[in-house]
Design goal:
Order of helices and strands: HEEEHEHEEEEHHHHHH
Distance between the termini: 54 Å
Low-confidence stretches: none
Strand content: 5-15%
Largest sheet: 5 strands, mixed
Number of helices: 9
Shape: globular
Mean pLDDT: 92
Structural class: alpha/beta
Helix content: 25-40%
Radius of gyration: 20 Å
Strand order of the largest sheet: 2-1-3-4-8
Length: 317
């Protein structure tokens, strides 16, 4: 499929400022965002299980220019949501979509290897069918791709690009999302849940990688984390301040999060901050029958107002 995608990229390249996709990273296990401007640069493009990053995060920076972008299912939902909110213009982006069979979780691979995988440590990597072979130092290990896939891929309802100008490949079948991860977490007592978040937030280094990696977190110049007028947060290294930021961040994404998982993946200390967004996404589906990034014509529920919501029967309470 990479050859077909490269052909599609070369076709649109003369008409756009650049095409955003994935290319070589610091080692064979890691890809990186890749900005293709010349035909010869397209040779280094690669999709597949290592195409982890969500390239939609860069689109607001190109507002006013015409750019191309290669997207899997969750990425395309982010693009669609940006368009639905008027944050980018549909006519300014050319979308090349493809079906996604899942992407790897480097932390799971590291656990299999028993190594802390710093960038540059992996010397070689091969993918053959459902088998991934990784070499680190003098140790080589094979593992099933299905065992090291990101958790989000196990419940992905939209593996195919939901919005595209060019679609490459055979559409894949989506899965059911029953929010089993949330159910397992909510089965704990309130005290246990609060203790969990206290422990997790105590490890936060306030780098805001979760914010920077999120394609829908677009108010970075006016973020509560850095605003001094009004002054929402202090710079104190306290669990309270860190948790407060995450709750505000999640609330700002209520009904807007497309489940790409970039916030949790980008966290350098492995805090599962995506759980906050998952809970609010489930609420948006239940209360408003709305899933972000699946309909360009529908305004996100918290960006509009209705005197009475059709799915909220408060008069009957």
């Amino acid at each position: 499929m990479d050859d077909e995608l490269k052909g599609a990229i070369r076709t649109i390249l003369p008409d756009v400022d650049c095409v955003i996709g994935w290319g070589p990273g610091p080692d064979p296990l890691r890809s990186a965002p890749f900005f293709m401007r010349k035909p010869e640069e397209v040779d280094a493009f690669a999709a597949g299980p290592l195409a982890v990053n969500n390239p939609a995060v860069f689109l607001p920076e190109y507002k006013g220019k015409k750019v191309g972008i290669v997207v899997k299912g969750c990425d395309s939902r982010s693009v669609a949501q940006l368009i639905a909110e008027g944050l980018i213009k549909r006519e300014e982006v050319v979308i090349i979509g493809f079906p996604c069979a899942g992407v790897v979780d480097i932390d799971k691979i590291a656990a299999k290897l028993g190594e802390q995988l710093e960038p540059g440590m992996v010397s070689s990597l091969q993918i053959s069918g459902d088998t991934l072979t990784v070499r680190v130092k003098d140790k080589e290990q094979k593992m099933a791709l299905s065992e090291v896939m990101a958790d989000k891929c196990a419940c992905c309802q939209y593996p195919n690009a939901v919005l595209s100008d060019v679609f490459v490949g055979t559409p894949a079948e989506g899965k059911t999302d029953d929010y089993a991860d949330l159910a397992a977490f909510e089965a704990k007592s309130v005290e246990e849940r609060f203790a969990f978040w206290e422990k997790e937030m105590s490890r936060c280094i306030r780098c805001y990688a979760c914010r920077s990696a999120c394609p829908l977190c677009v108010c970075r110049d006016h973020c509560v984390a850095t605003s001094r007028e009004p002054h929402w947060l202090t710079q104190a290294d306290s669990t309270r301040e860190k948790l407060f930021f995450q709750l505000v961040h999640a609330t700002h994404l209520a009904g807007r999060c497309t489940g790409c998982g970039e916030c949790s993946r980008a966290c350098p200390v492995g805090i599962p901050v995506g759980l906050f967004k998952r809970a609010l996404t489930r609420a948006a589906v239940k209360l408003f029958d709305y899933q972000a990034g699946t309909n360009l014509e529908t305004v996100p529920p918290l960006l509009t107002f209705a005197a009475e919501e059709p799915t909220i029967k408060e008069r009957e309470w």
